[in-house]
Amino acid sequence: MMDSIVFGFFCLSILGTFLNSTWLQILAGLFLAMVAIGAHNFAHLKHNWRTYYLDLTWGSSYEFRISHIFSHHCFPNTILDVELSMFEPILEFLPKGNKNWIQRHGPIVYNHVLYVILFGVGFLTRWKRIKEGKQLLRPEFLLVWFHLALCLVIGSDMTSGLTSWFTTQFTSSYFYHLCAFNSAHHTPSIFHDGDEARKDPDFGLCQLDAVRERSDSLIRNSLFVQLVVFGEHSLHHLFPTICNSKLKYIRAVFEETLEEFGENFPAMSSWDHFKGCLEQLRRSSPKSIEERKAEEAKFSSKSK
After folding, report:
1. H or E element that contains 220
2. Sorting pLDDT into bands at 50, 70 and 90, what band is 200?
3. 3-state SS of the chain: helix, strand, coil percent to 5?
4. 276, 293, 270: which is closest to 107 by C-alpha?
5. What pLDDT, on the 0 to 100 scale, is given for residue 304?
């Protein structure tokens, strides 16, 4: 499945560059974003070459494995979660009382600019550090340059080749981060550091406190969609090294166990996650457990 998406990306990129079609280049960027999100699944597994699909973007599988697996998965939505702190002070997800007006209300506009440039910022920083001798040059870092070379060879001239490469890469960055920020972790009903925590900090339940599944039937019932939009995220946080394709086999016992111990984590629609992310960025005061439960009471469907 993943290999087919990669094949589609290269076909669209080649056609978009050859025909000088902006729309095909944007579509290639969308496919590349799906490739990068799908690579997330393989980054958690035993070392395998599909992990390097992320390196076709301006991102880095090597850096992602460090920030995502060692930090985010161990300490989601806490001050030890690098995938929160790396975006401060531009994006303040934690409920801090000292947020200014721009930090609280600006993201509805500038989030979309950030989505476009975040991969590029990491790319420039990475190569600057390599040039300064502060970071080793890894072979997979060259994959994104292969895509550039392909665009330059196929394009009618250097300008069209570069335009195709930039269009595809910026588009992939946008769709990747649009999904990453709005898919599972950030609404006011989800625990963020500063909120009241459980008195008995069971690791699994704390993981579930920091994530909410999506209720959309398209995501719940399609492995393909789950793979390219960070689906089955609650189960993924409990069993990160199990391939996405196998999580469906433990979903039933997962739900039975939650019911047995009286735990409920209502799923939310993708639209509610999107709105909730902006609400969380505006939030400046901590919430108690009761307040968070009241916040999520409107979501009647259960997490799957």
Report:
1. helix 217-220
2. confident
3. 65, 0, 35
4. 276
5. 41
